[in-house]
Amino acid sequence: MHRVGTGRPPASGEMMQAMILLADLPIWAMLTPPSLDALLLSRGQAMPRAITLVPDLNGISGADAPLLATTRLMIRRAQGINGLTLTATGALSRADVRALFDAMSWPGYDKGNALAMNKVLNEADVLPVELTRLIAQTAKLLRKREKRLLATKSGSGLAEPEAAAELFAKLFATIFWQTNLSYFDRVPFEAWPQNHVGIVLWCLSVAGEGWFMPEDLMRSCTVWEPALDEGHSDFPAYAFESRVLRPLNWFGLLEMRMIGDANAPTWQRDRQYRKAALFDRVLRFDVQVAKPPGPAH
User: Fold this and answer.
1) Mean pLDDT of the region 214-242
2) Residue 106: what are its φ and ψ, rounded to 5°?
3) Which domains are delineated in the chain?
4) pLDDT value of position 264
5) Most CB contacts within 10 A, which of 51, 75, 178, 265?
6) pTM of the predicted model as reported, rounded to 2 decimal places
7) Are 31 and 293 in contact (CB under 8 A)?
């Protein structure tokens, strides 16, 4: 039985064996049943007990990850103008959306395309702003008062540079275990794979260092459900990318690159993902491996 307690990358030989598992599905089958249970969220927990985050992000690029940076922008704008203005539906006003749109930097988001397709920018037209506002409210960093969205005391404190690690942990737990990410992609699998995202995260930690297509990582790292075989064949991979890979990219834990014709619109190009160095520096897993990685001999 092998124990994995630090979250550090496996030795090179183990890593090569783990990479083979992309063809020998699934990676999570290596874990003991108690470890699988420990990677699932239990009642009253903010995160599964087998997962912890590094306590100090000082000097680490995660402090400036896109979701953290945009959250800070939103909180500081709310502080500076005595609250963000809300529409009748609870979305941000066009003025606030445009100010945040101009200031933000978001991986894989084509600002030029957004401006070309919209004469004015409503919140629903700018996914990074809509998502950040919803996550910040869920995490109680912003609160609604009448037609304004105000920074809470907690939000104001977490917007400070020295609170980067705490903000990272708060947003990480909120987006994966307190937010229904199906709201943003509309794929008709409301829970999957968020209902076992802790298992998915561990699988990604040992899936190898190379670039992979979303569907390859999906087959290796998720617990498949029969319902996924119904409906459009592209739905599972799209949901996996939307609910796991892209959010990890927003935290700086995965890198993403576009492949194909560089002159084509971003929505027509394929994406590949790989672990960023930050992944193994931030995430720690306390699990036991019952089956050694690699094919049986």
Assistant:
1) 90
2) -140, 125
3) 2-46+190-289 (no CATH), 64-174 (1.10.10)
4) 77
5) 75
6) 0.87
7) no
